[in-house]
Amino acid sequence: MKFTSETKFFLGIIGITLLILFAAITIMSKPSKPLTKEALIPDSAPTRGNKNANVWLVEFSDFQCPACKLFANVVDDLAKAYPDTLFIAYRHFPLPQHPFAKKAAIAAEAAGKQGKFWDMDRLLFTNQETLSETKVVELATSLNLDMTAFASGSGDSTIQSKIDMDVAYGNSIGINATPTFYLNGMKLELASPNDLKTKVEEMITKSQNTMTKSQ
After folding, report:
1. Which CATH code is given to the segment(s) 37-214?
2. I need a surface site. Which of 146, 190, 196, 203 has the fewest CB within 10 A?
3. Residue 130 backbone zone (phi > 0: left; psi -120 to 50: alpha; other: beta)
4. What does pTM read for this prediction?
5. Per-residue model confidence (pLDDT) at position 79
6. Cis bond leading into 179, ω under 30°?
7. Domain extents for the chain?
C-alpha cells in the first residue's frame, strides 16, 4: 500500500504525539523524590515529639481553614499517642481569602515565644469561628501569658517575616491548599482526617518493623 505525502505527514504527527504522550505518562508515573527534612523543617518551625524519630510529619496549615481544624484534632491525637516515635512540625500557610489567618498565625508565634505555641494553636482552632483581635487577647490571657511580651511579640517584624517565609516556601513546592501534609518528605493525598491517622500509623509500624529486623 502506497501512502501519499499528505498521509505520511499526518502519520508522522500522530507518531510524534503518541511518543510525547508516552513520555509524559512515564514521567508522571515515576514517584517524586521526597523533600529533605532540613528543607521542610527549619530550625524556627514549631515542633513537638522526638526530633530523632524516624517518622516525621510536616503540616502546612491556616488557623481559619475549616478543614485544618478537623485535621488538627488528628494531629493532636497522633502527637499524644506517639511522643517517642513521631516528630511533628507546623508551617504557616495563611490563605488570602481568610482575613484573620495571618494575624492568628502571628498570635500563635507570639505565644510560642513564651513556650505556648501549641496551646495557642489548640485555642485558635477551637475558637476558629469567632477569631478577632479581642478574642485573641482573651485566649492569650487564658494561657496566663505575659501580655506585655505577647503584645510586643505580636508586632515583631521577625515573626511576620517567618510567616512570609513559610508561605514563600510553600508556594515554591506547589502548595495551593490547606492543610497539606508531608510524611517523611512525601506529600500525602488525603481524603479525610482518618486517612492521615492511617498513613502515619502505617509508617510508624513500618519503621518499627525495619528497626526490629536490623537488630
Report:
1. 3.40.30.10
2. 146
3. alpha
4. 0.83
5. 98
6. yes
7. 1-30, 37-214
